[in-house]
Amino acid sequence: MPDRIKQIALSNFRGATGKTTLTFNTGKPIVLLFGENGTGKSTVLDAIDLICNQCHGSLQTRSSTKVSDLPSVGTKSKDLKVELVLGEKTWTGTVSGQKITVDQHPSPTAYVLRRSQLSTLVENKPEDRYKRLAKFIDVTCVEKAEDTLRAAHQSAEEAYDKLFNSHADAHTALTNLWEAEGKPNASATDWAKEKAEQDQTELAARLGHAQTLKDALTAVKQPKSSAADSRAKVADREREFAALFATSIDPIGGSSDSGGLVDLLKRAKAALPSLTEPSKCPVCEQGVDQEELSLQLQARIDELAAFDAHNLALSNARQALETARSTASTQETTYLSQTEEVVNGYYSLSPEMQTSLGADEALRAFVQDRHTDQAWARADALVDALVNASQVLDDEITRLTTDQNQFNAIKGYHDNLTQSQELLDEAEQVKQRLDDALKLVRATRIEFTQKILDEICSEVNALYDRIHPQEPLGLKCFRLDPKFKGSLHQDAHFEGVEDIAPQAYFSESHLDTLGFCIYLATVKWANDPSAILVLDDIFTSVDAVHMTRVIDLLTEESKHFAQVFIATHYRQWSDHYRFSAGAANNVDVIELHHWSKEHGIRVRSPKLATEEIRHYIEPDNWDRQIVGSKAGILLEHALDHLTLLYGCSLPRSGEAYTIGALLDGFKKTGAVLKVHHTSQSEAGTETTVVEVKDVLLKLGNIAFIRNRVGCHFNKDGLNVPDPQVEEFAQLTLDLADALTCKHCGSLPAPNKKTTDAWQCVCKKTLTQPLVRP
Question: Where is pLDDT greater, at 769 or 545?
């Protein structure tokens, strides 16, 4: 037996104010939560959703709600706690802000279907329908690969288009050049091929030589100017030196030590005022005029100073002349060296180009006098001659450059065309291969998914036919839209018309059951026997007959899941099990009562009808009115089930049948009714046959007890002894036990039969005959 939820404890979670604990019978695969609207059914199922799917359950489909709305009214997120016990493990869920946290991973798997979600399976847009089922048809990896291929294919297309445009541009440009040349050769490509194969060595050499001469002429301009300036400076220094030399002054007395004499004279002049005899020379003792002598001394001092200044100026002029000559020599050497480069460039030209420049005579003069004093003048003449003819040189360079550029353009276009054609062919192949791969992956995905959808559709129809047997409607197919990823269409048939939209022709009830069948078939296909199926009050438009079929269908389909939780406000659903119309042994019925903020969710586990009667006929619990009433209701329910099963003719009394009428209507069939119960033992399969005619006969004699004791007050009822009331209850229990399967706890099911007998839900108990006599 798979692990099942055996307990859910809620603290301040939605309708569970305070703490609420629900315990489930893990021996039964189905849990039926029955309660009127507003009793807390969705709260219990939302707790499962919170633990298993970390979402806020039914609030997700309601506008303006969020995770922070999960705490009970008047409480905070920190007060909320949900505990779920499954097998030997306990999961605890809490809420903080807008985040749901579950303490263990992975959580149990739970598939939750609510009323609000049925429309997404049937009535919503194809893309919304696909999203609802996508998690069960997981082709995420394939879709990622498809997206990657699609992106690669798009990139390949862009690369191809870029290459194509480049190829086209090159061809257009080449054609323009070809047309400008007068369309030689048969085509532009042939002409370009021929041009591209031509040797351009000579052209490159001629252009190089011409450019070398031009560069040399450009380079010689500065040295030429510098040399001319240097020569001018030499001439200036020579004139300055010659002028100073021509005015040379001899020192007085022929002395070369003018400096010493000046010093002596200055001391003598300084000593005159200190003479003891001013009118007498201290040396020769001759009479002197001291004032005159002082003037003579100063005149001699001035003459000697002028001599010294002239000699200094002459020396500086000589030094400046030598410096100018040295600089001029260096500049002229540089100039002549650069002129040699001009000469070399000129010699590299073709004879025709040399003639065009017309500098042969100047060149010969320079070569002849390059080592003489006339070298710089010859260089000037050569350079000037070539500069004057520079336009001829520029024209030659322009022409050669144009020819070279045209060749490079033609060769470039030709090479581009050749290479781009190869790349274009390769890009086209890559694009085609990617396109083929994309189509293959898309087709494989669609085929794979469609196969799954076909299997699901087949299962949907099988389920739908069990709810709507022999009705002229159903689902024809699911189909993926090949043009749009994640778009699921559905086609139905109705009254012989194919390929219709079910939304246009099906009733609300038929659409509800169709959506339910689609969901059930899909989660079945997921094939997870450990999963929990949760159905939250999904049926609101289904009538009683179809609801019975849905109930029986879920009982049978529960074997595909570990546990099934069903919430409903239809009492028919709970009574279906309480009175054994369904597989009561497989269903744990939990009943929720009126909710209030003070008490929160109120839970009780109701007993089966047979269990209740057995409880009240115990001496300690004896209550004759309850026993009579409940036994009468159970008997009436069992007989109503059998008369409907066999189609017995009954007289109507108001809107219901009386027990007497039911017994009379079933008399002939009851006389021959046999129930075959099978059981397994060590000896093998054993079959016990039970007849009910004697029980029915006895019940017919005392059926009045139901009205006299159980339902109404009358004096005749006071005369009915307790043992007779107990006998009525026990006979009713005997009839129920005889008719009810010991394995699944159900009466003969109206949709289960063999060729000669009715079957219970689990098909282990047979009831004969198949047709009333």
Answer: 769
For residue 656, give both structure tokens. 């219901």
Q: Annotate 663-710 with three-state secondary structure.
A: HHHCHHHHHHCEEEEEEEECCEEEEEEEECHHHHHHHHHHCCHHHHHH
Mean per-residue pLDDT, 749-772: 91
pLDDT computed for residue 266 by the predictor? 67
Angle between helices 544-557 and 508-525 (to 10 degrees): 0
Q: Torsion angle, CA of 215/221/223/228, rounded to 10 degrees?
A: 160
Distance CA(414)–CA(177), nearest Å, equals 12
- Residue 402 in tokens: 């144009």
What predicted TM-score, i.e. pTM, was given to this entire model?
A: 0.66
Quick one: pLDDT at residue 276? Answer: 62
**Any idea of the CA torsion for 678, 467, 568, 611, to the nearest 10 degrees?**
-20
pLDDT, one tens digit per residue, over 515-552 is 888 889 889 988 899 999 999 988 888 888 888 888 88
On average, the pLDDT of the chain sits at 85
- Which amino acid, residue 564? V
Beta strands 99-102 and 89-96: pairing type? antiparallel
Under the banding of pLDDT at 50, 70 and 90, the label for residue 254 is very low
769, with CB counted inside 10 A (0-12, 13-18, 19+), is: middle
Give mean pLDDT, residues 257-267. Answer: 66
The contacts of residue 456 (CB under 8 Å, 6+ apart) are: 478, 518, 521, 522, 525
Is residue 706 within 8 A of residue 629, CB to CB? The reply is: yes
pLDDT at residue 100 tops 60:
yes
Beta strands in 530-614 (DSSP E): 532-536, 563-568, 587-596, 600-604
- Contact yes or no for 566/533 (Cβ under 8 A): no
Q: Coil, strand, or helix at residue 552?
A: helix
pLDDT for residue 757? 95
- State the alpha helices, DSSP H only, in 389-495: 390-467
Among residues 79, 87, 80, 112, the alpha carbon closest in space to that of 7 is found at 87
Residue keyed to tokens 């030709």 = 414
Q: Which of 735, 762, 767, 739 is nearest to 613 (CA)?
A: 735
Rounded distance between C-alpha atoms, residue 150 and residue 130, angstroms: 21
pLDDT of 284 higher than 90: no
Instruction: Name the pairing type of β-strands 89-96 and 684-691.
Output: unpaired
CA distances in angstroms from 578 to 72, 493, 556, listed in the order given: 33, 37, 17
Distance CA 267, CA 398 (A): 83
Whether 592 shows a pLDDT value over 90: the answer reads yes
* 745 conformational bin, left if phi > 0, alpha if psi -120 to 50, beta if neither: left
Beta strand 684-691 with 532-536 is unpaired
Residues of the chain with pLDDT > 70, as a percent, come to 92
Alpha carbon distance 554, 549 (integer Å): 9
Q: What is the pLDDT of residue 756?
A: 93
Tokens 């870029």 correspond to what residue?
Answer: 162
Contacts 24+ apart (CB under 8 A), 146-149: 146/438, 146/441, 146/442, 146/445, 146/485, 149/434, 149/437, 149/438, 149/441
Cα 4 from Cα 28, distance rounded (Å): 9
Q: Say if residues 632 and 617 touch (Cβ distance below 8 Å).
A: no
Length of the chain: 773
